[in-house]
Amino acid sequence: MVVAGAAESPYTRHPAASRTTPAVLVDAVRRAVADAGLELGAVDGFAVSSFTLRPDHAVDLAWRMGLRLRWIMEDTNGGASALNMLQHAVRAVRAGDAEVVVVAAGDRMTGDAFAALVAEYNTATRDHLTPLPMPGPNPLFAMLTQRHMARHGLGRADYAHIPIAQRAWAALNPGAVYRTPLSLEEYLAAPAVAPPLHRFDCVPPVTGADAIVVTTRDRLRDGAAAEVLGVGGVINHDDQTGDGLSTGLAQIAPELWSVAGIGPAEVDVWSVYDDYPVMVLIQLADLGFVPDGDPRRLLAERIGAGRLPLNTSGGQLSAGQAGAAAGLHGLVEAVTQLRGRADRRQVERARFAAVTGYGMVLYRYGACANLAILERVP
């Protein structure tokens, strides 16, 4: 199965009134279908993830677009939704349940919408965290970052390599919300959010949406696509009593690398879920990309030196986090790179890409993690 089209409804920090959740989702769908060289009438499968689409659902959105579907799904697993939907879409097309599936995710994420989301994310958040008060996930991941710092002997200047490098990529991406170069001095001087996390360690909420088109090779119009070599995930990988310094990727990555027939060293483009810099490092380690166990060396010699194509859109830290679109943003970027359509930020001769998803904080940290490995076609 291949991803034949990928597109984004432009991200914005301050959306116009017309930029409603249905509007940005429909816009992303139409752009992705056009990017695949198809018409909306060809779409017979649809999957969507959104925090703010309610009270509507996937079927309401499909009806508004005039889609006639044989397969439909709705995913509510946050940062893991995109790859979860991709996995289901690939299997649906393979099984003949649909021929052309559009996967979409996005939100109108204003300040009020974000405040409501983090206050009542789930019952654990509503009943136990919000009354403390612990507003949103920042304090939880601040504690996780402290544990990571203590284990590896890292300081804030070490983690700075990730947002600074990604901001440099964002400068080459006209779709990124924040494109001004970021210096180490600016990073260190930024206001504290939940120490040791400061402003540039936390994703900015934005409004926007992403979409991809999953189909078979014989439906390709120009041959430019990304083949899905392997995709899988794990849900509730522990009981939330661990230290959070590993994700479910550690369990599933070996099998998926084997299925794909490549290893981490062969990946040309990395889209790693980057809600916080520490999670980028944790996921890369779980994927087998830190074989010597020394994240400081990876940060200084690869990421900070600009030698690792990591989150080449600028990632969520600079492009923005459009609610449930967070995981799909990295997938759209990976597909764009593999199809050779990334313009000034294009990674030369990009053949393989790895994309991760991570999210749904049950109580202390994310409970869902997944991985997709893609290859350029032809």
In short:
By secondary structure, this protein is of the alpha/beta class. It has helices spanning 21-35, 58-65, 81-95, 111-119, 123-129, 138-152, 156-159, 161-170, 184-189, 249-260, 277-286, 295-303, 315-319, 326-338, and strands at 2-12, 45-49, 71-74, 101-107, 192-194, 197-198, 207-215, 225-235, 269-271, 352-361, 366-377.
What structural category arises from helix and sheet content? alpha/beta
**CATH third-tier fold name of the largest domain:** Peroxisomal Thiolase, Chain A, domain 1
CATH class of the largest domain equals: Alpha Beta
Overall geometric form: globular
The CATH H-level homologous superfamily of the largest domain: Thiolase/Chalcone synthase
Give the SSE string. Answer: EHEHEHEHHHHHHEEEEHEHHHHEE
Low-confidence stretches: none
The radius of gyration is 19 Å
Instruction: Indicate the mean pLDDT.
Output: 95
Strand content: 15-25%
Could you describe the largest sheet, including whether it forms a barrel? 9 strands, mixed
* Total DSSP helices: 14
Please indicate the count of domains: 2
How many strands appear in the DSSP assignment?
A: 11
